[in-house]
Amino acid sequence: MVKNNRYRLFLTGFLLFAGVFGGAYAQQAANLQQIGPTDKAATHAKLKATATEAGSGKEIYPMTPYDISPLLIGEKIEEASLKDADGRSVELAKVFDNKPTVLVMYRGGWCPYCSKQLSSLQELEPELIALGYQLVAVSTDAPEQLRTTLEKKELKYTLLSDADLSFARSLGIAYKAPKEYLQLLPTSTGGMDKDLLLPVPAVYIVDKTGCIQFEYINPDSRRRLNGDLLKAAALSLKPFL
C-alpha cells in the first residue's frame, strides 16, 4: 500500500513531466499507477497478446519503436544471463540483489546518441553511488565491442551484452530494425542478432528484487533521459529501496 501511494505521489507527476520533456511511455506508466494490480496485469497481458503469430508459434516483433509493449512500473524483470566485456556470464538477478540499480538499455557504441548518453552517465555515476545505487548499461554490442567502448569512453561502470536481444525482448522493448541497420547489426552483435532487432533506449530504476520502480522509455532514440531528471527520480525513490 505504501508503494502504491508513493507511485501516485511521485511517479505520476514526475513521469508526466518526463513525458512532456521527451515523449515516451511515461504517460502510459503513470496512468497505470491509478488502477489495481489485477487490472494492470490484465492490461499488460492484452498489450502482449499479439506477440505470437496465430497458429504458427513463430514470434513476431513490433515493426516500429512506437509499437512496443514494454514492462510497466511495478512489474518484475525476468531473470537473464548476459555477458560482460570479458565474455563472462553475469546473472542479472545477482546483480540486482547487490543494491538498487539504475539499468540503462542502449542500442550500441556505434550510436552517437548512445555514446553521448554513456559519457553523461559517467559524470552522474558518483552521485548515484552516493545515493546507494549501482549503474549498469546493457546493449546489443558483442563483448569485444563493449571492451572497445569502455576503453574509448573511459567508463567505470558495468557494460553488459545482450547481443541476441533476448533480454530486450523480455522487457518488451525490441522491434524490427530499419533497413539502414541491417548490414551493421550482424557485425556489432557478433552475428547473434538473428532476427535483426533493435531495443528502444530505456532507463529503469530497479529494486533489489528486480521490480521496476521507475522507467523512461522513448521511441525517439534521439531523446534520452536528462541527467537531472534521473537524479531526481533516484533521490525520491531512495527512502523506499
TrEMBL record:
InterPro entries from the UniProt entry: AhpC/TSA, Peroxiredoxin_BCP/PrxQ, Thioredoxin-like_sf, Thioredoxin_domain
Organism, as annotated: Arachidicoccus rhizosphaerae
Top-level lineage group: Bacteria
Keywords linked to the UniProt accession: Antioxidant, Disulfide bond, Oxidoreductase, Peroxidase, Redox-active center, Signal
SUPFAM superfamilies to which the protein is assigned, alphabetical: Thioredoxin-like
UniProt-recorded name of the protein: thioredoxin-dependent peroxiredoxin
Function, as annotated: Thiol-specific peroxidase that catalyzes the reduction of hydrogen peroxide and organic hydroperoxides to water and alcohols, respectively. Plays a role in cell protection against oxidative stress by detoxifying peroxides and as sensor of hydrogen peroxide-mediated signaling events.
Thioredoxin domain location: 71-239
